């Protein structure tokens, strides 16, 4: 399997793993959204908590070339290490949400 296809598979596996977590409160479901044609991968939260509508991204990743770009990471512990543990090279991960000074992983 080439690098890009391997990275696609790893990203989907990691997001799917997070989608199986049960939110600690409210009636919230976690939906995976995988768009391989544009290399966009997301985990959305949808539901109700304390009478308020909950919706939005928890994770949003894109693939650009052979890089995994973490556009948004709303997970408490972060997903970066999960991606590395599954086989994505640290130098191939870009933290797009971090300032260039804070982004220790270069493009």
Automatic annotation (TrEMBL):
Coiled coil: none
CDD domains registered for this protein in UniProt: XisI-like
Descriptive protein name: XisI protein
Pfam families for this protein: XisI (PF08869)
InterPro entries tied to this protein: XisI, XisI-like_sf
């Amino acid at each position: 399997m080439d690098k890009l296809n391997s990275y696609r598979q790893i990203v989907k596996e990691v997001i799917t793993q997070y989608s199986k977590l049960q939110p600690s409160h409210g009636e919230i479901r976690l939906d995976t959204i995988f768009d391989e044609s544009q290399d966009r991968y997301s985990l959305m939260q949808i539901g109700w908590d304390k009478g308020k509508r909950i919706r939005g991204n928890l994770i949003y990743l894109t693939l650009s070339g052979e890089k995994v770009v973490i556009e948004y990471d709303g997970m408490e512990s972060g997903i970066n290490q999960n991606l590395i543990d599954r086989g994505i090279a640290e130098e191939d991960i870009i933290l797009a949400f971090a300032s260039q000074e804070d982004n220790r992983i270069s493009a």
